[in-house]
Amino acid sequence: MQIHTTIDSLRAARKTAGKAAFVPTMGNLHDGHIDLVRQAGEKADSVIASIFVNRLQFGPSEDFDRYPRTLAADCERLEAAGVTHVFAPDEKVMYPEPQHYHVDPAPAQISILEGEFRPDHFRGVATVVLKLLNIVQPDVALFGKKDYQQLMVLRNMVRQLAIPVEVLPGETVRADDGLALSSRNGYLSPDERAEAPRLYRQLARIRDAVRRGDHDFLKLETIAVAELAAHGWKPDYIAVRRQADLQPPVHADDPLVVLAAAKLGRTRLIDNLEI
Ligand code: PAF
């Protein structure tokens, strides 16, 4: 496995990489990332992973500074998982000058759910992902469904801007108690970690109720919010939405997803379940 810290070095390696699958990450890798790498390996001759904590997608009061940077351990895991090339630029390589050109995702997508609570987040994500795709020029790129809205925004960006890459989703990987794996789980105290699966359990309760035919989404969402709040959480949203565009359901046969974000102590967790 080769580790590249400059764009020139990665581009030179890319020339002989054949069909390439790309897994962009911010590091501090867990089994969810490794599952994306495994899926990537089935799709291409080489797997390229990137590790870059992207300042543009963090709000001013968010956790950019304390986001865990674990490059050596990450590279060991990536090598063991069969990654061929790692692109690990520092900020001077990715943003040698202030980034004045951005990708602005559609307002209808970024004013809802995560976008409502993290105003410039998806602009930062879309901008860095377009830049990474331009650098790596992969045939396939993989993104986890844990960040469901991010996956939708990036799929739409790739389609609308005719970026020549196939976007593939990866299933959310969960701990035995249901908690979705996330780099931010590392912020949780032991007590918070024991409490954290309640978010998944509330989503599962809504999913099961909807599957049984209960379509009073507002009631189901309100009960889940109250249940979390009663256990010390500060929920931002719990919402049943259409899978296709994350807007409120209209037709009875719309494929649905239930999404949630809530703070437990200082840690903001997100999760979702397709119904
Ligand atoms: O999902 C992530 O880890 C990040 O948002 C991504 C896609 C690597 C862009 O920084």
Automatic annotation (TrEMBL):
CDD domains: PanC (cd00560). It catalyses: (R)-pantoate + beta-alanine + ATP = (R)-pantothenate + AMP + diphosphate + H(+). Pathway: Cofactor biosynthesis; (R)-pantothenate biosynthesis; (R)-pantothenate from (R)-pantoate and beta-alanine: step 1/1. GO terms for molecular function: ATP binding; pantoate-beta-alanine ligase activity. GO terms for cellular component: cytosol. The active site is at 33 (proton donor). Pfam families: Pantoate_ligase (PF02569). It is an enzyme of class 6 (ligase). GO terms for biological process: pantothenate biosynthetic process. Catalyzes the condensation of pantoate with beta-alanine in an ATP-dependent reaction via a pantoyl-adenylate intermediate. Homodimer. NCBIfam families: cyt_tran_rel, panC. Belongs to the pantothenate synthetase family. This is Pantothenate synthetase. It comes from Aromatoleum tolulyticum.
